[in-house]
């Protein structure tokens, strides 16, 4: 999240391009030669000098840039060249000649096949340093912002006022050290698992017993092998809450025993596309969503009763129907098969109802740290009018409402807005109101209706804020803008627009919501 302070509240003087990119901070070396000094299948020694934003090592072999998955900065490795382009190439790591001090053994046995985590081979403290640097790089390169040196926290000081900068330009942005987790495993509250059929070989469950067979095929579910659409069966993921692993394994097992087929994206045949499991860390309540290619589920009643019998804690079983030929997980139709349409969870003492399709942060422990920081940066005194754009189920809105005069939340998914209203009532919070619609349409209308916000909080999806929304923020001239972002590139792009419109970026706090992956959340 970034905190802006209004400098002159002026109009927008210019805009950054909309194509904020994800390029590595280490640029390919200009070889100068017309031909690459390495060829496909060459075995080469590579000095690794950086890490791309996708977590690949960036190395030099004979002055030529090679991207090497699994290699870390500072290492010397041997690698086999896989692909050669004009100014760079890709190589497969074959041997680590001189390891980095940051190298650790990845604890997950399927880490190399699965694309879900990218940094398990890097010490956690080094991951946190790298994530901060990733944010700094984006702010400097894309946002053209001046970032001050290492922020020094005054002893015991947690508030932004306790940060001291020695010899820095007062206008420079302070980027704090990343807030990490004490125990960075089993942190995810949600699993979305693609389903497929195994064409040969016996499938063994967690208990080691062979699973029933369906015409020589078996229902499997796990992850897409790195860079492909081939599903690899998996029963355990070290960043998932145990309950989600347990639920998915049992749902698969029962589905196999009942002869449920998996959807085949090539033929369009088969039923089960994904199984989603979500658990409330505080309440222990769990939701299962069966995403199906059609409405009818054979043996549905038996499936449901066996799920209920074998998986304690499940309070909601929901079906979502998606018949479209698409990679998008959810279809438009959702119906409750059994139990409640929502599960409940709590963040910092506030209770939330969460329905199947609503966005809810996947790491609840770090979410509390993130939202507290957002509230701190909003610097509320109890009287302010606050807009929470992209509010989801009203999570940040309700954190803000505890300290604001009134909060207006807007979100595009109507079900999430229903949840937000329910959540405000559930917590007896009367000073928050919610409206469904695109933020870039609803907020300009609020402006016409005379709403004058003191603070605007935005928490957009990865693509960042809509240009029309940024224009409206500049026109509404709130005293502060608090920007929560899951994508440093679009954050930096949007900060440039706000800077050009008269705001100054004051502080940036990276939060590690997704340990062992390359993703970083920022306030
Ligand atoms: C990163 S999530 C943040 C949600 C919420 N602030 C939270 O922390 O749980 C972004 C949200 O923006 C919503 N969204 C996407 N495009 C939108 C738009 N144009 N206008 C309003 N909301 C939008 C998504 O549905 C999603 O709920």
UniProtKB/TrEMBL annotation:
UniProt GO BP: methylation
Transmembrane stretches, start-end: none
Key words of the record: Methyltransferase, S-adenosyl-L-methionine, Transferase
Compositional bias of kind Gly residues: 8-17
Record: residues binding S-adenosyl-L-methionine: 361, 390, 411, 459
MF-aspect GO terms: methyltransferase activity
CDD domains per record: AdoMet_MTases
Active site: 486
Pfam families attached to this UniProt entry: TRAM, tRNA_U5-meth_tr
Domain (TRAM): residue spans on this chain: 35-95
Enzyme Commission numbers on file: 2.1.1.190
Region of interest (Disordered), ranges: 1-37
Family: Belongs to the class I-like SAM-binding methyltransferase superfamily. RNA M5U methyltransferase family.
NCBIfam families: rumA
Name of the featured protein: 23S rRNA (Uracil(1939)-C(5))-methyltransferase RlmD
Organism: Paenibacillus artemisiicola
